[in-house]
């Protein structure tokens, strides 16, 4: 039934696409990866232009106009572009982040290379990457999900924050009675454990089920009151706590994951996955390894549904995937290629599989909105490469608390030239990073305010034009 519905929607989209060429671009990434900022910057670049040398259609002047239009899906919130831009321009503050799916439609009028005038309808769909990481659950039984969750929780990096939840499991045997209070208690502890894994210090990425951290409009609903139990058997007996949890897990898949897949994910043509690679590097080897597993899961999600009726009736929908390391403005120019190389290394295994299926995949390091500039600064008799920005009020470095008006030069140091060193079990690559972090201050934890002067001209960025060229270039040729 699901496949048939997706096929119908796909068909409807295609018919619509014949009359009006349309591209549905998904913007995703885990919480705080930079989705809101990227989507805002992308809309700004298309509607207002900017310095975008690599984005050929814009550079050559073939884009006549790009206008916001009413979006196609009435039941999906609109991406609050104007509000976000106002926050950036007037408050010089970052807007609030993505917590649910939102959409925005742009009509791009352009001249083809041969000179005829066309319109491309671009539908942007911004949604939490946590929800994407739920798709692998569709192929998983409750027992398998529980076992995977427990294995992750018992790994050294997570064991400490998992302790309260794991301890409660001793008093919640799967064969015990189905007790609502017990179910709620374990679910609350499990949710607290997932949140603790997301803190800056641990920066774990693979934390399903996604709605536990990003509930959207499901906050507090019964679909979210289940948790993995220590399952010895595959099929819990009727009337037990295990059976109750299993039923809710299946309900979660049916009521949450399947509709997301059908209504949003299955209809995307292209996808950008934003990755806060620097946050993982800051947190250390375990965070990086966890990010790699999560990215694997994300690429697995792009395969979901490929062996179904949909794929036999239609060509695979997602034709291009771009992985983007965000916030590259926290690094000096010399390290941008290195950041890109680290992300490429993270998706290497997954990349081979995606290409097997004919989807083009690329990697870029970017800053959708650049909050820093580069400078040469003398320190201890040496000229050093620095980046200069305005730390947000309340940020702290070397005991100084910033008030949000002072500029500061930081010395980002270099990322390793050989990304493999970061994956070396000896941790050698990370020791290099630590010494580059300039003594007691780890600059990469500093959050800078957005640049001053937003609203007047184009937005400053790093390599946004490369992302635009990969994602849109061929459709505007
Ligand atoms: P989302 O949760 O994926 O929607 O993340 P946001 O787009 O809201 O970004 C989260 C935070 O990351 C922002 O509040 C900024 O502090 C920071 N950020 C995102 N993009 C950039 C960027 O291009 N440059 C800098 N310096 N910070 C960024």
For this entry, give a set of tags.
alpha/beta; Rossmann fold; seven-stranded mixed sheet; three-stranded antiparallel sheet
Q: Per CATH, what is the topology of the largest domain?
A: Rossmann fold
The CATH superfamily of the largest domain bears the name P-loop containing nucleotide triphosphate hydrolases
**Proportion of strand residues:** 15-25%
**CATH domain class of the largest domain:** Alpha Beta
Sequence of strands across the biggest β-sheet = 2-3-4-1-5-6-7
Low-confidence stretches: 304-316, 435-441
Overall average residue pLDDT: 89
Report the biggest beta sheet as strand number plus sense, adding barrel if it closes: 7 strands, mixed
The number of distinct β-strands equals 12
- N-to-C span: 38 Å
Shape: globular
Radius of gyration: 23 Å
Which structural class do the helices and strands define?
A: alpha/beta
Helix content: 40-55%
Bound molecules: guanosine-5'-diphosphate
- CATH architecture level-2 label of the largest domain: 3-Layer(aba) Sandwich
What is the H/E string? HEHHEHEEHHHHHHEHHHEHHEEEEEEHH
Number of domains: 3
The quaternary structure here is single chain
- Total count of helical runs of at least 4 residues: 17
